[in-house]
Structures are given as structure tokens and as C-alpha cells.
Write a structure and sequence with these properties.
This protein is an alpha/beta fold. It folds into two domains: 192 residues, Rossmann fold (3-Layer(aba) Sandwich), CATH 3.40.50; 147 residues, Glycogen Phosphorylase B (Rossmann fold, 3-Layer(aba) Sandwich), CATH 3.40.50.2000. Helix content is 40%, strand content 18%. It has 14 helices and 16 strands. An eight-stranded mixed sheet has the order 3-4-2-1-7-8-9-10, with helices on both faces. It has a six-stranded parallel sheet with strand order 13-12-11-14-15-16, with helices on both faces. Strands 5-6 form a two-stranded antiparallel sheet. Strand 3 and strand 4 form a beta hairpin. Helix 3 packs across helix 4 and helix 7 crosses helix 9. The longest helix has 19 residues. The radius of gyration is 20 Å and the shape is globular.
Length: 354
């Protein structure tokens, strides 16, 4: 099967969709499929690097407003259309991005089958961005979702929100997975990780882009001695007690979880539970998250998980879980198998080629 994955960003740009797409590209390639990945060049250099194709683009909206929306540059649409023409099936991630609309449009024009995975519902932006986003979902989003041959989502609350917009088509639910290296460490591995990363004492970790939606301000108010991994415009909020690691190679990210004691991530507007939460739980870390519907729905009944809103509540939950040290690893492992994730997408994509 010739498969084209289309996302808005591509690694090394940091984000959940980029990590999910990377797992699909690598995993389905290992299973014998011919896979290409097309995305904007934001965070990299435009051009072709093996199976990865980076389109010229500007990232001004993320840099200035914290809105992760690349604007594709000259020639991008033609390059994307060429790769759509090559593919047996096109897998598009999220409906609002320029790359998504162009890919679905080109595939429809050429009769190429499309699967669209919707990772998120609306982000809780402040006005007027919230109104603009809602209008975009009602117009461009509905059109792109309606033009795709089949739809998938990572959590049941995502299609439920789209039904409120009148989108009645069914979504197949395929939860995101995490790579096998995310597992609880041995005592020697934990000791080594803490030494390598210079961690001592109880370490509370924050992982994500430093944008308002990820809740960095609330996390810092709850725990000023935060270990922050990620970068973005809200780096200005970091105080003298926080330790900042702007970037960690994905292949070493499990070491940070092994070195830490708890993940604090009070983000909002997530489509699932974020890869950072999944990775931390699979490594045995308790987590404190917001009371966002995505977290409440997908982490209900999980051991070692606290849901909070105000900084004082987040701090109280963090202290309790640090004292109790419950491990959610077994619960997480039973739900987020890497092979189960690949099986689900391989079945959906192969079904579109028949």
C-alpha cells in the first residue's frame, strides 16, 4: 500500500500530532507499506529527506500568537498534489489546516481515497480567536470532514462535539499509542537518568509547548520549582526557581520521565490526553491534569491521576500523589498498546484501497 501521511507540522517541531504521525510512518513502514509524510517545513528545512517532504511555510501565527497554524508558501500546493497523485490512500490529520484542506481537495479531484483523523475539538482560545475558530469549524472544517471518505477520532468526546455542529457521519475511535520504550525504569535506570539530567529531590515535570493552552502559568503557580521541558512564547513566565530544558530529542524523552516523580500538566482543549500524559503514566509516574473533558473521559478510574483547576488544588493533588506514589503503568499499558494502535490504522487504511 502506498500511503501518504499529511500533517501541519513534522518533527523536529514538537507536538502530539507530529509524534503520532511519526509512529505511524515508522510503524507502517516496518510492516512493509510504502509511506511518505508531507508537512510544513516549520522547525526544519523545506525539501525532501527520504520519505519525509517538508513544504515551504511561515510559522508567524505560532510565533506571535501561540496559534499552531503554519501558512504554506509558494509551490506547496503543487508539491502536495504530486504526492497525493502517487498514493493509494491519503491519511490527513485534523480538518482546519491548510495542508489538510489541500490534500483532501486534491485527493477528491483525483479519486484517491482519504482517511481523516480528528485529534482535537475546539481549543479554549480567548475572544476573538474563539469566535474565529468556531466559524472555521462550521465552514472549512465541516467541508473538509465531509469530503473525506472515512473519519477517525482519538476520543469519543471529539465526534460528540462535531455532532453539535451537525456533522452526523460516524467516526472510528482509535486511541493514540506510545512507543514501547516508555515503561517503568529499573532502580539502576532511574538512578542513571537522575544523574544524567541533574535531578535531585522530588521532581515535578511539565512537558509541552509553552503556549497558554498548556497551562504553564497555572502549573508554575502551583509548583514554582517545576522542571519544564518544551519551548514557546510563554517561556517569559519562567521564574528563577523553575528549571527549563527547551528541547529533548524524542528518543531520550523517556529518561526525563524516569528521572522525575510526577507530571503536572493542567492543559485544556486536548483531543485525547496528550502524549506527555500517556508517556508519563506508562513510565509509572502519577499525573495531575486539569478537569478538561478529554482528561475526565479518557482517564476515568485510572490510578495515580488527579484532576484539578485552581493552582492551590493542583498543588494539593501533587503533594498527595508524591506522598502516595501510586503507579498507573499497568492501567496505561492495557489501553495504549503500540501494536494495537498500528493494527487499527492499518485496517482502516487498507479498507479504503479495496
Amino acid at each position: 500500500m502506498r500511503l501518504l501521511e499529511v500533517t501541519h507540522y513534522m518533527t523536529p517541531h514538537a507536538g502530539g500530532i507530529e509524534r503520532v504521525a511519526s509512529m505511524l510512518v515508522d510503524g507502517l513502514s516496518r510492516r512493509g507499506h510504502d509511506v511518505r509524510w508531507v508537512a510544513s517545513a516549520c522547525g526544519g528545512v523545506a525539501g525532501t529527506d527520504g520519505a519525509r517532504v517538508r513544504l515551504p511555510a511561515w510559522n508567524v501565527l505560532e510565533e506571535r500568537l501561540g496559534v499552531p497554524y503554519p501558512i504554506l508558501g509558494p509551490g506547496a500546493a503543487w508539491t502536495l498534489a504530486d504526492h497525493v497523485r502517487w498514493a493509494d490512500v491519503v491519511h490527513v490529520h485534523d480538518c482546519l489546516y491548510m495542508s489538510s484542506a489541500l490534500a483532501v481537495g486534491a485527493a477528491r479531484e483525483r479519486g484517491t481515497a482519504t482517511l481523516l483523523t480528528q485529534h482535537i475539538g475546539p481549543h479554549p482560545y480567548a475572544p476573538p480567536l474563539a469566535a474565529l475558530q468556531h466559524a472555521a469549524y462550521r465552514t472549512l472544517g465541516r467541508a473538509v470532514l465531509g469530503a473525506a471518505d472515512r473519519l477517525a477520532a482519538v476520543s469519543p468526546h471529539v465526534p460528540a462535539w462535531f455532532r453539535s455542529l451537525g456533522m452526523r457521519r460516524p467516526f472510528e475511535i482509535v486511541p493514540n499509542a506510545v512507543e514501547p520504550r516508555f515503561r517503568p525504569p529499573t532502580s539502576d535506570e532511574r538512578r542513571a537518568a537522575r544523574q544524567v539530567w541533574g535531578v535531585s529531590g522530588p521532581a515535578v515535570l511539565f512537558v509541552g509547548r509553552l503556549i497558554p493552552l498548556k497551562g504553564l502559568a497555572q502549573a508554575l503557580a502551583a509548583w514554582p520549582d517545576l522542571l519544564v521541558v518544551g519551548d514557546g512564547p510563554e517561556r517569559r513566565l519562567l521564574g528563577p526557581r523553575a528549571r527549563h530544558i527547551p528541547g529533548v530529542p524524542p528518543e531520550r524523552m523517556h529518561e526525563l520521565y524516569w528521572a522525575s516523580d510526577l507530571l503536572l500538566l493542567p492543559s485544556r482543549g486536548e483531543g485525547f490526553v496528550t502524549l506527555a500524559v500517556q508517556e508519563a503514566m506508562l513510565c509509572g509516574l502519577p499525573v495531575v491534569v486539569s478537569d478538561d473533558p478529554a482528561f475526565r473521559l479518557n482517564l476515568a478510574g485510572a490510578p495515580g491521576v488527579g484532576f484539578g483547576a485552581a493552582p492551590a488544588e493542583l498543588a494539593l493533588l501533587a503533594r498527595r500523589l508524591l506522598d502516595e506514589r501510586p503507579s498507573p503503568a499497568g492501567w496505561a499499558r492495557a489501553r495504549w498498546s503500540h501494536e494495537r494502535f498500528l493494527d487499527g490504522y492499518e485496517r482502516l487504511l487498507a479498507g479504503l484501497t479495496r
